[in-house]
Specification:
The structure is a homodimer.
Chain A lengths: L4 E2 L9 E3 L32 H8 L4 E3 L2 H7 L7 E3 L1 H7 L4 E6 L10 H13 L4 E6 L3 H12 L3 E7 H6 L1 H9 L3 E5 L5 H9 L7 H13 L4 E3 L6 H20 L6 E5 L4 H17 L4 E7 L4 H4 L1 E6 L8 E6 L21 H8 L4 E5 L1 H15 L5 H20 L4 E6 L7 H8 L10 H10 L6
Parallel strand pairs in A: 5-15, 6-7, 6-9, 7-8, 10-11, 10-15, 11-14
Antiparallel strand pairs in A: 1-4, 2-3, 4-5, 12-13
Chain lengths: 453, 453
């Protein structure tokens, strides 16, 4: 019998999250006030987030203890398995050793509950009884609904109306965990009512949904807001993935040469890669960490490093990030979780310092990779996850061409059970390339009038 | 931190399946020829199944070795976790200790791959390159598609047209693993063409789909047929569930007083319960093993013990079983996997000998149980799985009323990711009771003109 799966038991769930800021040679630049453009402190976040999360957002402590109650909930699906991809290696006829960490075993089906549970816990600790958020495709909304339910917190999800109408099953999933799901724009907020008055038939947008969720939190004492990626504390929580993977690779008697993860706002990538990047920063190892983004939303590979807003309408602080501009609307690819204009500040700084790498894959290539993986390994990946697979396949093919047996590890961040329509479109030949032209990129960057770094 | 999850590592995957026939005080009666009504031997199955599976169908060996190649594939998702349901215990305010074995971590999302992988393996060993089967809701078709793909066997699935049209995502899942899926009746078989000629707009039935799959296997040298429940070899393969659970309960320092599983054809129940029933048969323990069936299809609780056909049209051997009659068409409940008129012969004999128990739950009760479970434990169960939950809740409530802290174990046989429509119907108040009247039951039994036992 092959040693396909490297398991840990529930007592081996890591006790600390890893905060890479402590080890970064150049720390991230401070955020700026959206109006004054002056640096702001953590207190600016107080209306939206509980104190403990704001502290985690700015801490320079290297290790942050995971509360027992959070580890307890984690144990529902963690530690997640790490697999040696013998099937994929054989299908690619590569000398590479390929491993993947599988986050699809969570009840919500992705890595998102790693931070959702932590966020719900800290909110509950500070007496918060309602958390609002936005969701597009539904992965994040599902994860937060799941987490809030376990801590007996009311969860309000503003779901982009287009998704609300087209992805009813994600909505039902959230309802099953007791969450209230509103099609956004909704009648529940001032922002929503205003937009509906102007255009009753609007299909909504993530920017509008954020505005609604933020308004509810900002105007209600016992209500806070939660974000599923981009911010430092979200990345911090996700390092549980890499912390486990480090233990598992040690058990396998291997250390990766290359670590790969899909890239949307950064928490997926940070989660797996930062605990390995630590070996580079601490011990001078040279593990290549590669962020894998869609060619239709290539902020890391083709964007500009600049201050930019986190939202579309320009209400959030200005953050120093690789961005395509807050007005950029990515093509409607199925990997909805990767359709974000900017990259979180830590990842942006690391890329600027050439401590990590980034690659982009087109939409057809990633589905080819996804089907290859499903047939070789048995698990059908989420469209977001196929980006990491495409990069892993690319690197494994290079190993074959060069005759070098490198060890590759990637983050299989979720299953595709709710994404069968995407696979149907692929089999029906309806998936098309969405690559930006030089002119489009140059126009986006030229028009971005936010402050330079 | 609570000890919620009892894990085994991949080296603890059991090496043998348990064949309860060896320990049964009364062995099952022989099958009869559908025409002559005379007892038949295993050779009658040769056109449909490979020799190794026919041997397993009739063996009286107590332990059957699991081939290394099968254990290797099992390790993709096995051993599956066993959970202590602290959340559910709290929600029910019961002194009972509740455990559940979770089979939803398989790539196909249920326990079905346990036998699909074994069946694909033995077919491949005997040079079979194509396996046919039927599927209703799609759980079994998905599992066999997954398994055949890993052994490079062509898989043909005849999917009841009603499901084919209404559950496209299960079809896409099968396609992703490379299976060919035909809406049944299809043009691919004589049986299908005949029915289509008579009624081009028919929505099909499981009986028709079986006829098509069987015809393809019977008329093609290199093609065999596979069944997902009912038969002895299928039950045998599923005992991997209980074999693991026995180890896990030992690790937890506990032995169940009550073991519960949903009941369709019997493999789900056999899988978890038989390895515990062994303690009763071998050591005189008195673990209650309860099969949980839908009130709309109550063959165990209200059926008759009689010879009956396995299929609707009367082509299969006559089997001694608890049945509602092969012409019985169960109400269209969402738990499609439990809509079968009869019970496998081993389970039928055990029930007749009062060595196991059976209960029935109505359709509304099981969804209430499913939502209670999802909110207490985080995992959204498949509609089939909610039946076992309903029984567990019933027993846990009795523990509270009687003040007795019994230990309950049930089989959470699959997740509900592909069943969100069912939950939507429940929340919309569209789930209704389907209970059979005394008159209906008595009519079904009176009209059944097959041989008595």
């Amino acid at each position: 019998m092959k040693n396909r799966k490297i398991t840990l038991n529930e007592h081996e769930i890591p006790e600390k999250w890893y905060n890479i800021i402590a080890d970064m040679p150049n720390k991230p630049l401070p955020p700026l006030h959206p109006g004054t453009k002056e640096p702001i402190g953590p207190e600016a976040l107080a209306p939206l987030f509980p104190g403990a999360l704001i502290e985690q957002e700015v801490t320079s402590e290297k290790w942050v203890e995971i509360p027992d109650e959070v580890r307890d909930i984690y144990s529902l699906w963690r530690p997640t398995p790490l697999y040696r991809a013998y099937g994929l290696e054989k299908a690619l006829d590569t000398p590479a050793k390929i491993y993947y960490k599988y986050e699809g075993t969570s009840p919500a089906g992705s890595h998102k509950p790693n931070t959702a549970v932590a966020q719900a816990y800290y909110n509950k600790q500070e007496g918060i009884n309602r958390i609002t958020t936005e969701t597009g495709a539904g992965q994040w909304g599902s994860a937060l609904s799941f987490a809030c339910n376990l801590f007996d917190i009311e969860c309000e999800v503003y779901m982009v109306r287009l998704s609300y109408d087209h992805k009813p099953y994600r909505k039902v999933m959230m309802n099953t965990w007791g969450a209230k799901v509103f099609p956004s724009p909704s009648e529940a907020t001032e922002a929503g009512r205003k937009i509906l008055a102007e255009d009753p038939d609007t299909t909504g947008s993530l920017g509008i949904a954020i505005s609604e969720a933020v308004e509810r939190a900002a105007t209600n004492e016992d209500t806070k807001y939660a974000l599923g990626s981009v911010l430092n504390h979200v990345k911090l929580h996700q390092t549980i993935i890499g912390q486990e993977a480090v233990q598992q690779m040690e058990k396998a008697g291997d250390l990766p040469d290359i670590v790969i993860a899909p890239f949307g706002g950064g928490s997926n990538f940070a989660g797996l890669a930062f605990p390995f990047l630590r070996f580079n920063l601490e011990e001078g190892k040279s593990i290549r960490c590669i962020a894998s983004e869609p060619a239709s939303c290539p902020k890391l590979t083709r964007g500009v490093f600049k201050y930019d807003f986190g939202d579309t309408v320009g209400m959030t602080p200005l953050l120093p990030m690789y961005t395509l501009g807050h007005n950029f609307i990515p093509a409607p690819i199925h990997a909805g979780g990767l359709r974000y204009h900017g990259a979180g500040v830590i990842v942006s700084q690391l890329l600027r310092d050439k401590l990590i790498e980034a690659v982009a894959h087109d939409n057809v290539e990633v589905f080819e990779a996804g089907v290859t993986f499903a047939r070789a390994e048995g698990i059908i990946p989420a469209p977001e996850a196929t980006h990491g697979i495409a990069t892993a396949i690319h690197e494994a093919n290079k190993c074959r061409e060069e005759g070098v047996p490198r060890t590759i590890l990637f983050n299989l961040c979720g299953h595709g059970n709710f994404d069968m329509k995407a696979y149907e479109d692929y089999f029906d030949g309806k998936i098309v390339k969405h690559e930006l032209s030089e002119e489009e990129i140059s126009k986006l960057i030229t028009e971005l009038d936010t402050p330079d770094v």
